[in-house]
Structure formats: C-alpha cells, structure tokens
Structure prediction request, 112 residues.
Amino acid sequence: MGIFNEHSTTSKSGQGGKQIRGAPGVGFKFKKNGDFDLQNKKIVNIANPSCFNDSVNYMTMKAQSLLLDGTNHMTSNLNTYGHSIENLKSPTTNRHAVNKEYVDSNYTTKKY
Prediction:
C-alpha cells in the first residue's frame, strides 16, 4: 500500500498491474486528472522552503516579498534588465523619483 492508500495488483507473471486507488484522504479528494481537491480546506504547518519548487508558507512569502503596504523594503538595487519603469507619477517630495515629463516641463537645458 502506498502513501495515498493506493494498492498495486500483481499479474500472474509477477509484473506489477494497474494502480487501484483506495479511499481518498480526510478532507480532500482526488480529481479524475490526478489533482487534489481540498474542498476549501487549508494546508497548514508548511515548513520553510529549501528548493525552488517547494510550497511556501505565509511567513516566508511575507518576509521575502515587497508588500504593497510598504512594510518590507528593498535591500538591494532594482535591476529592470533593460525594461522601463512606466507610469511613474510626478514627485511631491525631494526624495521621490521623477519622470521624463516632469523633467522636460520643469527644467531647461543649459548650454555652456
């Protein structure tokens, strides 16, 4: 019996036969395509990820993401890899970034 209660049948020739799925787990079921249907239940107590394709728990996601409310901030430079930053609004304080439209309309080029 496997970890998901599946049973393996064995043919008379000793070769493994078709997998027969046992009863679904408590609180979820298997869909025909093999996906889990958690029926609006949560997965809880997820460990911290150690591989790029691991699931991520809420605290890890929150600690390693830039949040819209500003509670996390960048810890290194922003590299856009040649892409533009668009829709930057006009500055309202001395420490805001400026867009090209603001510079073009508020400053003139000095010729030396």
